[in-house]
Amino acid sequence: MQVEKYRIHGITKNTETGDYMIVLDFYYNERMLSNGTCEHCKRFNTSPAWCQSCDPWKSAQKFTSGNEEIDNFIKEFQTNSTEYDKVIEWIPFDRLVNRKEIKNKSEVEFMADWLDCIRIIEGESGNYTRSRTISRVELMKLHCSQASTLKLIENFKNHVQLDKYRIHGITQDTETGEYMIVFDFYHQKRKPINGICEDCKRYNTYLAWCQLCDPWREVQGWTSNDKDIDDCIKEFQLKATAYENVIEWIHFDRLEGPKQIGKVLYTYQLG
Ligand SMILES: [Zn+2]
Ligand SMILES: [Zn+2]
């Protein structure tokens, strides 16, 4: 009672069990006028357009993955969600369309468009609204056998704790049975100042460059006529973090007037 962590309203007794209980507002210190008012309990929200007492229960009620253990662990995450756009969902595989395999040896294995869209908070202080916006997402296999649900859950929790990406949820490939994380791999690098990627409609990861979409354009339409060299350059290209850092195959006839300077060939590149 010394530290005022909650707002305590009183004490009651459960007439069935005989237990005494404190009647309190558990999230009192987090409730702020600037977050807006909860429609359900009429108190201020605990984060923009989100009441931690009332809202997590709504998202936890209306889904099933077909596996009770997985349902329970997703619901556990959901009931502890502190913000609307951090809620983790069960995402049915058929809601992920235009799936494309990614072969650049990163953790991302597929990208897809999520029909239910990602969660965003719009508006400004005191007047926030929840919304969902069309977006591309990435998929990464959890590499666990279907039989080992516990291992799968542990794996997933590790990724959440890493806090490296923005995780939207979990899905199961209906053909292979494999579970996958649905996430935004480059979330921390995406910033408004970099502009919007024409392809995936998210903020770019660097000035006018989306590290997920743009490298694919670079690896197409050229060859050195040596597969090993092509593969080596393409590997660099697929990991390029900025437009001006892309390494290219340069045809010798695009280089004008090579001049010998010691052991270095000094050249001009054409257009
Ligand atoms: Zn509420
Ligand atoms: Zn993109």
TrEMBL record:
This is Uncharacterized protein.
